[in-house]
Structure formats: structure tokens, C-alpha cells
Amino acid sequence: MTIRLTKTAKRAGCAAKQPPGYLLPLLERLPPITDPRVLVGSSTADDAAVYRLDDERALVTTTDFFTPIVDDPYQFGAVAAANALSDVYAMGGRPLTALNLVGFPAELDVEILAEILLGGAHKAAEAGIDLVGGHTIKSEEPIYGLAVTGIVQPDRIASNTGGRPGDRLVLTKPLGTGIITTAAKNDEDSRGAITEAIAVMSALNRSAAEAMDVVGIGEAGVHAATDVTGFGLLGHLRNIVRASSCGAVLERATIPVVEAAVAYVNAGIAPGGTHANHRFLADSVDWGRDVDKADQLLLCDAQTSGGLLIAVAPDRTDALVVALQERNTLAAAVVGELVADHPGRIAVRS
Ligand code: CO
Ligand code: CO
Question: Which positions are annotated as active-site residues?
Fold first, then answer.
């Protein structure tokens, strides 16, 4: 009998993340960051830390790991690696090396682990880097991810803090993978949408980062970026608007979604992490009159290895969309804009 990997874990992928707001009070009790060479630390809820080496170069360091999001071990490895690498791309960086982070139950066949590692190694190779080591422990549930080291120019960092009123918001992958993977895990994926969800989740954000680089990160181009993962589109946008002291307006009709997710969420399927995001965001989001509960959950859906959400100067928006399309990103959608009104808050229109 083949083991269904998602049945070995209670929670899956980025939906296994602790809810937003959980960690903040704990981080506040830790000593502050004191090294002035730390250009990006934990205070702005950014995707990765950035450490200045010299005028030309800064290191980008990040880690991500989680429990099985799909049943196939090779695909799980590929998705987890793409997800971990994504945080380097979201900062405008380029990965250099990565380490495997592994937890594996003693009672599971070690061949499963071999497949997970192979999926991760092939994804790293696609990103143009090597996996140079790692650490493995025995655990109750399988866990896999990477610690990634990358590089970025210190004056070309796409952090959460640089967004400005007027910036257009561009999304590079469709939403809905949390809902679809939950349907699959619960044997409710009647449309067989898991294949498309895996394609979405295992796609590297490398080409999206290259498109940002073409347009230019800084004053005249891309002002801020993040990747959409466990906190959902709105949760990660909330991090940008708070760090950038502006508000945002989204147009639901322009937001790309994997189609099956709409049907599933209307049938009441959504991961616990998505509901937790929706509750957490209640104070920060003004839902338009016609944005129903299903749409609200979609915009809060806990994504695993989602696309980049990019804030770009209005007159460079077309150039960014073209650069994304030329690189065949899964989406290149202008979904809204940053505004001076209601700082820290997001308005969603139908
Ligand atoms: Co991230
Ligand atoms: Co992350």
C-alpha cells in the first residue's frame, strides 16, 4: 500500500504556520537587533533578513519548512524548496546556496525521504544552486524545507517598507492552493485540481524576480515586494501597508484564482489557517458590499509557495507586466493600488 503523505500530518504546508499575531508578543521580549549592518531584520515582517557586506553586496538569509502539502513525496520536496527559495526572490535577491531541514518519522520508509530530498534537489538545481548540507531529526510528522542564503545589492532591496501611495499592486500567481490542497487531503477534490495546484506551488518565483530586476528595484521602479504564503494575499498585503504607512485598495474581479478553488470554497472547503487569517484580518479590511464570504476566504486563503505581490510605480506598471509575461509567470495581474487614505488598512471592492 502506498502511503498518502498528507495523511501523516495534521496540518499541511504554509497552513501549518502559527497564526498571524502569534509570534509578535514573543519577539518583543527578545533583545533588539543592534548590528548596523543588519539592513532588514524581523521588525518589518519581511520575507528574509538582509546583512550588508559592503557597498555592493548584502547577504539574504531565510528559512521555511513545513509538513506534507501533497501526497507525492517528490512533489512535496519540490514545493517546499520552491517555497523556501521564494523569500530570497521576494527581496529582489538571487539565491547562492541552501541547506536541507528535515524531520522524518522512524516508522516511515526511508525511500519516501529519498524522494522528498530528490524533489528538493531538482528544484534547487532549477534555481541554479546546490544543496550544500543540512540537518535531519526524528519527528512525529514529516517536515521538509530549506535554509537559503542569497545575495542582493544593498540599494536594490524589495522590502515591505518601500510602498508608496499610487503604486500599482501586481500579483504573479493565482490564489486558491490552500483550498485545493485541503480538498485533496479530505478526498473532496472532485475536479482533480491538485495537479494544477502542484504546478502553481512548485513554480519558482525566479522569473518574477528577474522581471522586477528588469524594471528596476528602487525610486523609479519596484518599491516593495513580498511573496504570498501562509497569511494569504491580504495578510501579506497588510504587512506591506503597515510597514509602508499607506493603505490599499484591491479589485476582487482582477485577482487571479485557480478556478476549482472558487467552487470548493463555495462548498465550504477551506483550511483552518485560511479561517484564522480571515478572523485576524477583520480589523484591517473593509469588505465591499458585494464581496461575499467565499470571496473573502479566497483572498485570505493560506497559500503555499504563492506568487510575488509587487508594488510598482504607476508609470512602470506596464513595463513590469510585459516583463512578467515575457517570462511566462503564471499570472501578471494588476490587482489594486496603494493609497494615502486609511493607512494600515485594505479596502476590497468587487
Ligand atoms: Co515570504
Ligand atoms: Co517565509
Answer: 14
